[in-house]
Specification:
The protein is an all-alpha fold and 208 residues long. 69% of the residues lie in helices and 0% in strands. The protein has one domain. The radius of gyration is 21 Å and the shape is globular.
């Protein structure tokens, strides 16, 4: 069943990869990137369960790179546009938080600058050729794109988490189900705010 599922998911994933790399509207993009992500994870997990841990890690990393590049293009054209400094105007205060702006700029740029992104935008405002306060309201299409942007930022963190998990499983030669079964044996009394913290033996020795 795992072999058949891996084959099927791999074929579907390649189909969505082709669509993701092609020009498309923002509405098509949101559907395609979601199914691309789901099939990438499904295919990787099947590979990992079959003992192909290194393949699973490499495939998911490659898919993440494709997804990230396509998502950056969406951010640049549909969210930030040519005038990301417009987010500093009063009319966007209800729709976009400072945290949103920082996260979106970090997502779209190759270098993560954090709060320094706000200073960059302030510098751009002073040299703008248009008045960012001219428009009376934020369009419905923009607010939809803002929701997509927040979803993409969250998905990036999830995908990176799976990649790191697969790196760990590869290093330890452990299948995902084996790790899951082990976690089920742990006592809930050992949880920290609902989570388990795993420390390396070296770190645990130093802490002790």
């Amino acid at each position: 069943m795992l072999i058949n599922s891996r084959q099927t998911l791999g074929e579907i994933h390649e189909s969505y990869k082709i669509r993701l790399l092609n020009e498309q509207s923002e509405f098509e993009f949101t559907t395609v990137e979601e199914y691309f992500s789901i099939t990438a994870l499904g295919n990787a997990i099947c590979s990992a369960e079959l003992g192909m841990l290194s393949t699973a890690k490499d495939d998911l990393q490659e898919s993440f790179t494709v997804w990230k590049n396509a998502s950056r293009s969406f951010f640049e054209s549909q969210v930030l546009t040519e005038y990301p400094e417009r987010f500093l105007s009063r009319r966007y205060a209800e729709f976009v938080t400072s945290r949103d702006i920082i996260g979106w700029m970090d997502f779209a740029l190759t270098e993560e600058r954090g709060i320094d992104n706000l200073d960059d935008l302030r510098n751009r405002v002073s040299s703008m050729s248009i008045d960012i306060g001219l428009f009376s309201k934020v369009s419905t299409e923009e607010t939809i794109n803002f929701g997509v942007a927040r979803k993409l930022v969250a998905r990036k963190q999830v995908l990176q988490g799976y990649i790191e998990q697969l790196k760990y499983l590869t290093d330890k030669s452990i299948r995902p189900s084996e790790l899951s079964d082990y976690i089920q044996t742990l006592s809930s009394e050992d949880q920290v705010e609902g989570c388990y913290l795993f420390l390396s033996n070296e770190f645990a020795t130093k802490a002790a």
